[in-house]
C-alpha cells in the first residue's frame, strides 16, 4: 500500500525561525549554483550573510504580502511568497522545496497556495522572474500555466519572466 504524503501550507512571518532557515537554504542553493556555473566556486560565507541581511523578506509580510511555509510531515520543507507590486499585480518569489523532498508535489501545492494568497490580496495576476540555469523552476511554472513574457523588472539575475492571470474565486 502506498503511503500518502503529508504537506501542510500555512502563512508565516518572514522572520520566523522556519522561514529564515528555508530562506537560507534557498539562497545558498541558488547562489552556489550561479557561482559554480560562472566562477567555479561556492558562495563566499561573508557574502551570503550580507545578502541575507539585506533581503529579510519584510515585503512578504501583511498587509501587502504573504510568506507561506510548507511542512512535510510537520517539518519545514518549502516556501513561497507573494507581494503586491500594484493593486492588481503580485510577484511570486522564494518558491523553494528542500532537495530531498522534490518530486513529492510540494512545489505545485506551494504555488497554488501563493496564487490563493495573491487573490486574497486583490491581485488579478502573478508575475515572477527566474534565471536561465534554473531550468526546473522554468518547467514548473510552464506546467502550472505561467506564460513567459517580456521583462517586468531589471533585477540583476533575472533572465526569464513569467505571468499568469488568476481566475477569480467563485
Give an overview of the whole structure.
The chain has helices spanning 17-38, 45-54, 106-120, 135-143; strands at residues 7-11, 65-72, 75-86, 89-97, 125-130, 147-149, 160-165. The longest helix has 22 residues, at 17-38. It has 170 residues and is an alpha+beta fold. The model has no long low-confidence stretch (mean pLDDT 91). It contains four helices and seven strands. The protein is globular. The chain has one domain (7-165): 3-Layer(aba) Sandwich (Aminopeptidase), CATH 3.40.630. Helix content is 33%, strand content 29%. It has a seven-stranded mixed sheet with strand order 1-2-3-4-5-7-6, sandwiched between helices.
Show unreliable segments. none
Strand content: 25-35%
Strand arrangement in the largest pleated sheet: 1-2-3-4-5-7-6
Q: In terms of quaternary structure, what is this?
A: single chain
Total beta strand runs: 7
Distance between the termini: 36 Å
List the total number of helices: 4
Please provide the ordered H/E string of secondary-structure elements: EHHEEEHEHEE
* CATH architecture classification name: 3-Layer(aba) Sandwich
Rg is 16 Å
Q: What is the residue-averaged pLDDT?
A: 91
CATH H-level superfamily: Gcn5-related N-acetyltransferase (GNAT)
**Can you tell me the CATH class?**
Alpha Beta
GO molecular function: acyltransferase activity, transferring groups other than amino-acyl groups
Protein name: GNAT family N-acetyltransferase
Domain N-acetyltransferase: 21-167
Keywords: Acyltransferase, Transferase
Amino acid at each position: 500500500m502506498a503511503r500518502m504524503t503529508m504537506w501542510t501550507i500555512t502563512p508565516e512571518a518572514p522572520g520566523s525561525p522556519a522561514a529564515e532557515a528555508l530562506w537560507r537554504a534557498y539562497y545558498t542553493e541558488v547562489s552556489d549554483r550561479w557561482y559554480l556555473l560562472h566562477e567555479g566556486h561556492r558562495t563566499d560565507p561573508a557574502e551570503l550573510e550580507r545578502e541575507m541581511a539585506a533581503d529579510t523578506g519584510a515585503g512578504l509580510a501583511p498587509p501587502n504580502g504573504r510568506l507561506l511555509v510548507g511542512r512535510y510531515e510537520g517539518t519545514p520543507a518549502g516556501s513561497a511568497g507573494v507581494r503586491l507590486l500594484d493593486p492588481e499585480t503580485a510577484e511570486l518569489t522564494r518558491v523553494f522545496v528542500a532537495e530531498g523532498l522534490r518530486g513529492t508535489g510540494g512545489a505545485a501545492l506551494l504555488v497554488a497556495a501563493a496564487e490563493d494568497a495573491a487573490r486574497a490580496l486583490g491581485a488579478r495576476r502573478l508575475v515572477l522572474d527566474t534565471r536561465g540555469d534554473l531550468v526546473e523552476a522554468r518547467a514548473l511554472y510552464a506546467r502550472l500555466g505561467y506564460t513567459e513574457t517580456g521583462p517586468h523588472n531589471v533585477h540583476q539575475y533575472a533572465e526569464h519572466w513569467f505571468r499568469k492571470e488568476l481566475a477569480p474565486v467563485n
